[in-house]
């Protein structure tokens, strides 16, 4: 793994990915942030040695390097998921690469369903904690201790300082920002009514198919991280409508500007 990380890092450094400060992972249907970035270099995932390739049609699949509000950033335009057939090691490999390139903070976004029915589609949720329902760990491989502490502490996986700043920014800009627990499932199928009831019962406020593996690896690397869910649908088991993927993507695009404000204002301060 160390050799593979070095090979990929060297390739990107040679492409001009020079001392980035902040990494950003963009979730499903979320890409408008790129309009705010002065792009210096971009590389398709399928050109990067050892990188997986995004297979979801609304995940573009590029690693982008540039500046945002005066800071050097790396942006993953499109992420990887277990449901695409990748391993948890594959899914989290880009986090290790961004860390090896030098990022000091990581910001993550995703599209999620609101299980807490006080939360509405089109709103945002700051992730305060999570529940891993993906049935595995990205740290469960031989030699992981060479990359960081095997028994990684997860008592506070989301950085309290950055989260407090995001809440303050939301108040300042009049953005309705919930705070809650995110449950991560494998997918790609959506949940049944019974599964939504279960997810709510165990304490989750939102559910999605990503993010938790990347957060675990960020903590393994002692990389401060914050994450925001864009709530794209309401998961009411007593009034559950068939899934409408185009509507979910449209709702993500509608809610995204508020997420962009939160991220850009935070980046100014870190």
What does this structure look like?
The chain has six helices and nine strands, in the order H-E-E-E-E-H-E-E-H-E-H-E-H-E-H. The chain has one domain: Rossmann fold (3-Layer(aba) Sandwich). It is an alpha/beta fold and 270 residues long. It has a five-stranded mixed β-barrel with strand order 5-8-7-6-9. The longest helix is centred in the last third of the chain and has 25 residues, at 245-269. The protein has helices spanning 2-14, 88-101, 160-172, 193-201, 212-220, 245-269, and strands at residues 22-26, 38-44, 62-68, 71-77, 105-114, 124-132, 177-184, 206-208, 225-234. 31% of the residues lie in helices and 24% in strands. Its EC number is 2.4.2.1. It is an enzyme of class 2 (transferase). InterPro entries: Nucleoside_phosphorylase_d, Nucleoside_phosphorylase_sf, Purine_phosphorylase.
Break the fold down into its secondary structure elements and pairings.
Elements: H1 2-14, E1 22-26, E2 38-44, E3 62-68, E4 71-77, H2 88-101, E5 105-114, E6 124-132, H3 160-172, E7 177-184, H4 193-201, E8 206-208, H5 212-220, E9 225-234, H6 245-269
Parallel strand pairs: 1-4, 1-5, 5-9, 6-7, 7-8
Antiparallel strand pairs: 2-3, 3-4, 5-8, 6-9
Unreliable stretches covering 5 or more consecutive residues = none
What is the CATH level 1 assignment? Alpha Beta
CA radius of gyration is 17 Å
- Overall 3D form: globular
Strand % is 15-25%
Total beta strand runs: 9
Strand order of the largest sheet: 5-8-7-6-9
Number of helical elements = 6
In which range does the helix fraction lie? 25-40%
The CATH superfamily turns out to be Nucleoside phosphorylase domain
N-to-C SSE string, H for helix and E for strand: HEEEEHEEHEHEHEH
Major β-sheet profile: 5 strands, mixed, barrel
What is the CATH topology assignment? Answer: Rossmann fold
Mean pLDDT: 93
Separation of the first and last Cα atoms = 30 Å
């Amino acid at each position: 793994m160390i050799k593979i990380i070095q090979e990929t890092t060297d390739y990107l450094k040679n492409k001009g990915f020079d001392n980035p400060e902040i990494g950003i992972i963009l979730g499903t249907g979320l890409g408008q942030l790129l309009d705010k970035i002065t792009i210096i270099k971009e590389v398709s995932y399928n050109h990067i040695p050892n990188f997986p390739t995004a297979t979801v049609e609304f995940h573009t699949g590029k690693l982008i390097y540039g500046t945002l509000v005066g800071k050097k950033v790396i942006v993953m335009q499109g992420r990887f998921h277990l449901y695409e057939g990748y391993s948890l090691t594959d899914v989290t490999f880009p986090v290790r690469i961004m860390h090896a390139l030098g990022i000091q903070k990581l910001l993550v976004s995703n599209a999620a369903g609101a299980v807490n029915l006080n939360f509405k589609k089109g709103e945002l949720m700051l992730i305060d904690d999570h529940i891993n329902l993906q049935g595995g760990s990205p740290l469960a491989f031989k030699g992981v201790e060479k990359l960081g502490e095997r028994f990684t502490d997860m008592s506070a996986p989301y950085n309290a300082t950055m989260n407090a700043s995001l809440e303050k920014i939301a108040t300042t800009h009049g953005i309705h920002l919930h705070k809650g627990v995110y449950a991560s499932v494998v997918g790609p199928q959506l949940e049944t009514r019974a599964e939504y009831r279960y997810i709510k019962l165990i304490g989750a406020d939102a559910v999605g198919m990503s993010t938790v593996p990347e957060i675990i690896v960020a903590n393994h690397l002692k990389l401060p991280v914050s994450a925001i869910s864009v709530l794209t649908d309401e998961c009411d088991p007593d009034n559950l409508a068939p899934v409408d993927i185009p509507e979910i993507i449209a709702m993500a695009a509608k809610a995204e500007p508020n997420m962009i404000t939160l991220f850009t204002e935070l980046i100014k301060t870190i």
